[in-house]
């Protein structure tokens, strides 16, 4: 049983009368890919926001390496080792590809970073490595706003890679990618898990889930209905009914 | 004639410093400040008082101007930078209006409506630098130094952090950026630099009063930055020069009565701002972008 | 008696603020456009009325012209300034700067043709008579109260009953819902500007009759509308109107304790306080950081 890096216990969030997340328990283990599945509005992104500190839980706890991080500010939580991507990417549009990634490895919110020249070179190296892994080295000087769709998805991943964080929360990271790019993407994620990273993935694409996920947590209306290996979850007729029923009438 | 040109150039230089400093806020950090003239004024009053009461050394007075303006910017920054853009703009407008009232009423500090008169000639390490030519050189040096500081800062990790906040605040936060702290630092830097410009302005005119620090002035500075091009080094300079030369050019157009030149100038840059935002939001010097 | 007198003038000022603030709040609430050129609509309406009266028009016609000009201004801005910007980039910055540019351009245009000073339309409505000892009131106060009650009533009815009204409320919260009901976001945006700009007209006319109007009145009005919208709570029309009324009353009453030059500053102190301690305002939805 490998280390649990991030866990939530009895996590709940209410907005006025609406219970967006209801008493969710989940463990994110080192080297394991956990997919969050479920129809739109099930509370998946809300759970991410609760983990990153962008929302404060109404009840329950979020534990990073066993210690509660409820109430900590999002930027502190990011510095503590949780990296998060967004469904709408939120790249730094007018900055270059390289700068987008460089920003991710400069944690100090001050006029300068610690460590002097040696640390600076190390940071540059980390950036170059991340760009290589994601195949973006050739366009390092291009502005983020000038990239193709696939390139933007990889840039979003490169930023995460560069942080060196061991906990990745990815919101539909590979959506809309063609098959080749998607496989390339999945490989990068696999290699990361081999290095001990735990990935929590919000995904709608069944293929991606089967290829990548070690575990799938199925959510509906804020509650976790099931969590198990993909084979079991994806064959459960009740869950399939909920998923496809909602997905069709939903958006 | 030559003095007229020297004076115009000096003013252009001073306003270039002011525009460049506002660009740090608006163009690099994405902080929409509509109260910049107040900080210009704080620098002017502080520097002028220093010159009147202690010694009219332009270097020391400018430093005082920078410190006063930078420190007082915390008053606006600390509370207001925690809220959304629209609220910050409203707070800035509020500060601008309240600031003018305070400038007009604080007789002991600002001379009230009458302002501060008889600001002594500028000296530097004991040498008189108040002649039009000499003072222009002093201002140009100040401009170069300001631009150097801005360039160094904006090329550093601090500059990248600011730009990331400007481009996408929530993402910047998710990568560890302490957004309120960074915005506050940007505000202090920008206001300190405009404080220097204010002091130079006071020396140049030998007289300052509240009329030079009104909302109109804040808007003019904003127009310089926007029209010249945000987020670039040359943009604010282009904007400053263009908007200062504009009234001079307008005097040569026959059918505009001299009393209306200011009004026509305003009409021109008001329309330019609106039109540019539709067709080229990055301004004259800016790069044309994608979405 | 000074208190009552100031209260009366405060109510009058407050009503005018409430109308303009409601217009701004309606536009911002529905379209999320920070329409800082709202003040420009105000001066256009005011000067249109003034000029018509100068040309000898009968006042109801002048009022009509004023309405037409204001609504036209609002529509032109919505279609030719805001819409193209929102199509291409639409960041808060570009919209704001463009709106600012427009308001400066309009102000300077009016200043060029009418001069910097204040102009007034003389009217018997402003003749005050002593109602009780020490308290002088003019009929214009009654007109202001009457007009605003009628207008607010109409607007509220419209927003709650008619389809388009409901559409306006949905526009900002749930645009997807609109298509389901056969409504068009573009048209609704224009409608918001029409109503919002129309609300400004009585305020502009009454101002030109009472204290007079000048080119810079637009920015003053804009600031107050902004302050009232925030204090009242972004998203709440009722809040903006009430806050406008409140700010007008305070601005006048405060003269009993401080010098007149501080009376405007007091409104901004209040704005500041709200931004710092209660950004959601009096009635607004709670604001996320």
From TrEMBL, chain C:
Membrane-spanning parts: 6-26, 33-50, 56-80, 92-114, 134-159, 188-211, 223-250, 262-280
Domain of life according to the entry: Bacteria
GO term, biological process aspect, one: amino acid transport
Topology versus the membrane: Multi-pass membrane protein
Keywords, in A-Z order: Amino-acid transport, Cell membrane, Membrane, Transmembrane, Transmembrane helix, Transport
An MF annotation (GO) of this entry: transmembrane transporter activity
Record-level GO cellular component terms: plasma membrane
InterPro entries: ABC_transp_permease (IPR001851), BCAA_transport_permease (IPR052157)
Locations listed in the record: Cell membrane
Recorded family membership: Belongs to the binding-protein-dependent transport system permease family. LivHM subfamily.
Name of this protein: Branched-chain amino acid ABC transporter permease
Organism listed in the record: Advenella faeciporci
Source organism phylogeny: Bacteria, Pseudomonadati, Pseudomonadota, Betaproteobacteria, Burkholderiales
């Amino acid at each position: 049983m490998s280390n649990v890096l991030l866990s939530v216990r009895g996590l709940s969030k209410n907005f006025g009368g609406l219970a967006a997340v209801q008493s969710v328990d989940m463990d994110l283990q080192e080297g394991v890919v956990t997919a969050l599945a479920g129809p739109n509005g099930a509370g998946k992104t809300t759970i991410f926001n609760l983990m990153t500190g962008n929302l404060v839980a109404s009840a329950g706890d979020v534990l990073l390496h066993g210690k509660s991080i409820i109430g900590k500010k999002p930027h502190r939580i990011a510095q503590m080792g949780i990296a998060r991507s967004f469904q709408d990417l939120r790249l730094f549009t007018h900055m270059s590809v390289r700068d987008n990634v460089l920003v991710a490895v400069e944690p100090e919110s001050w006029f300068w970073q610690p460590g002097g020249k040696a640390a600076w070179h190390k940071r540059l190296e980390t950036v170059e490595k991340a760009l290589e892994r994601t195949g973006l080295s050739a366009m390092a000087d291009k502005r983020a706003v000038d990239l193709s769709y696939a390139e933007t998805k990889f840039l979003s991943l490169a930023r995460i890679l560069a942080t060196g964080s061991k906990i990745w929360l990815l919101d539909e990271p590979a959506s809309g990618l063609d098959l080749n790019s998607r496989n390339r993407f999945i490989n990068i994620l696999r290699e990361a898990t081999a290095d001990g990273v735990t990935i929590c993935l919000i995904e709608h694409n069944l293929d991606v889930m089967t290829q990548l996920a070690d575990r799938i947590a199925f959510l509906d209306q804020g509650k976790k209905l099931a969590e198990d290996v993909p084979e079991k979850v994806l064959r459960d007729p009740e869950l399939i009914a909920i998923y496809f029923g909602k997905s069709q009438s939903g958006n | 004639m030559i003095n007229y040109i020297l004076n115009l150039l000096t003013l252009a230089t001073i306003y270039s410093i002011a525009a460049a400093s506002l660009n740090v806020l608006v163009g690099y950090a994405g902080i929409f400040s509509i109260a910049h003239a107040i900080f210009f004024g704080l620098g002017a009053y502080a520097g002028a008082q220093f010159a009147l009461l202690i010694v009219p050394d332009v270097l020391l007075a400018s430093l005082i101007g920078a410190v006063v303006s930078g420190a007082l910017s915390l008053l606006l920054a600390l509370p207001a930078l925690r809220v959304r853009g629209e609220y910050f703009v409203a707070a800035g407008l509020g500060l601008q209006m309240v600031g003018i009232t305070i400038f007009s009423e604080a007789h002991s500090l600002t001379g009230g409506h009458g302002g501060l008169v008889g600001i002594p000639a500028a000296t530097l390490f004991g040498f008189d630098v108040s002649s039009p030519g000499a003072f222009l050189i002093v201002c140009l040096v100040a401009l170069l130094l300001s631009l150097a500081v801005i360039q160094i800062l904006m090329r550093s990790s601090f500059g990248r952090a600011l730009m990331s906040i400007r481009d996408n605040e929530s993402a910047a936060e998710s990568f560890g950026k302490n957004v309120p702290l960074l915005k506050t630092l940007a505000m202090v830097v920008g206001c300190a630099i405009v404080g220097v410009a204010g002091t130079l302005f006071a020396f140049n005119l030998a007289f300052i009063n509240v009329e030079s620090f009104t909302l109109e002035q804040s808007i003019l500075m904003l127009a310089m930055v926007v029209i010249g091009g945000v987020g670039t080094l040359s943009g604010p300079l282009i904007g400053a020069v263009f908007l200062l030369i504009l009234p001079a050019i307008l005097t040569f157009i026959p059918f505009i009565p001299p009393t209306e030149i200011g009004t026509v100038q305003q009409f021109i840059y008001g329309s330019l701002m609106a039109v540019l935002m539709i067709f080229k939001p990055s301004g004259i010097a800016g790069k044309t972008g994608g979405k | 008696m000074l208190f009552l007198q100031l209260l009366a003038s405060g109510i009058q000022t407050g009503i005018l603020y409430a109308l303009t603030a409601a217009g701004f709040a309606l536009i911002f609430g529905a379209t999320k456009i920070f329409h800082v050129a709202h003040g420009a609509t105000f001066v256009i309406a005011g000067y249109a009325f003034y000029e018509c009266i100068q040309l000898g028009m009968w006042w109801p016609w002048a009022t009509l012209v004023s309405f037409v000009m204001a609504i036209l201004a609002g529509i032109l801005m919505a279609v030719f300034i805001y819409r193209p910007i929102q199509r291409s980039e639409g960041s808060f910055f570009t919209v704001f700067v463009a709106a600012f540019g427009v308001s400066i351009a309009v102000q300077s245009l009016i200043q060029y043709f009418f001069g910097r000073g204040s102009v007034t339309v003389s009217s018997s409505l402003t003749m005050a008579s002593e109602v009780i000892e020490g308290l002088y009131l003019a009929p214009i106060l009654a007109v202001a109260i009457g007009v605003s009650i009628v207008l607010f009533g109409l607007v509220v009815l419209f927003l709650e009953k008619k389809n388009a009204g409901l559409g306006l409320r949905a526009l900002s919260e749930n645009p997807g819902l609109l298509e389901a009901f056969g409504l068009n976001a573009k048209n609704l945006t224009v409608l918001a500007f029409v109503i919002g700009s129309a609300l400004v007209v009585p305020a502009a006319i009454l101002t030109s009759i009472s204290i007079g109007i000048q080119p810079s009145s637009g920015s003053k009005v804009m600031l107050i509308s902004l302050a009232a919208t925030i204090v009242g709570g972004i998203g709440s029309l009722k809040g903006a109107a009430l806050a406008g009324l409140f700010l007008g009353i305070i601005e006048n009453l405060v003269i009993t304790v401080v010098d007149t030059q501080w009376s405007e500053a007091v409104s901004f102190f209040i704005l500041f306080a709200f931004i710092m301690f209660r950004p959601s305002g009096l009635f607004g939805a709670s604001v996320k950081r």
